[in-house]
């Protein structure tokens, strides 16, 4: 499972240090020293983390706060690098998850990035969609439809094109996870539908014990897709 971090830093030495540490943790680094390019990046793709050098970019705190308004990156883990003179109020106003205040130490950066990686994985698991090809029973108002699930997450699933399913559908679904993973039943509704009738369902009600089974099944497959050679923290 690939993790990606956008690094908005100009200083070459700091770029190299962050890139090396992130790579060692199995996190792909996208180095974007230009604020305009960074703004474009957060609007066009989902990122697991963003590091912003607010010493070089005066609008760095504003940039971090603006990410919260973007659905794709509202849950990205954020770092703000601040000058030595930064006040407690300034640190709070960045709304960043992690504050790295100059002068930076390798130990501080390493510990912060390791902690952040755990948070990144937690968020990734929440939104991770595992590809499958499973039969699904959809029941609404006493009428049953047979569909195919193409991927599943802790919060919903995608369905292959179905000629009868409507964008207003809401009801109960039932399917069995592969490898004797268990039977999943939940209430759901259509979250989106494309012109070809491919659709996404959102779970609206699911029992806690059933959710646990689904999350554990997905988590096991997330771990299987983590980069080899990485020691998982925590």
Description of the structure:
With 234 residues, this protein is of the alpha/beta class. It folds into 2 domains: 125 residues, Rossmann fold (3-Layer(aba) Sandwich), CATH 3.40.50; 95 residues, predicted glycosyltransferase like domains (Thrombin, subunit H). The chain contains 6 helices and 11 strands. The strands form 2 sheets. A 6-stranded antiparallel β-barrel has the order 6-7-8-11-10-9. It has a 5-stranded parallel β-sheet with strand order 2-1-3-4-5, sandwiched between helices. Strand 10 and strand 11 form a beta hairpin. Helix 1 crosses helix 5.
Name of the level-1 CATH class of the largest domain: Alpha Beta
Largest sheet: 6 strands, antiparallel, barrel
Poorly predicted runs are: 226-234
Distance between the termini: 17 Å
Structural class from helices and strands? Answer: alpha/beta
Alpha carbon gyration radius: 21 Å
What would the CATH topology of the largest domain be?
Answer: Rossmann fold
The total strand number stands at: 11
Mean pLDDT: 89
Cα shape: elongated
Count of individual helical segments: 6
The level of helicity is 25-40%
Q: Report the CATH superfamily of the largest domain.
A: Response regulator
Q: Indicate the CATH architecture of the largest domain.
A: 3-Layer(aba) Sandwich
Helix-strand sequence:
EHEHEHEHEHEEEEEEH
How many domains make up the 3D coordinates? 2
Approximate strand percentage: 25-35%
Strand order of the largest sheet: 6-7-8-11-10-9
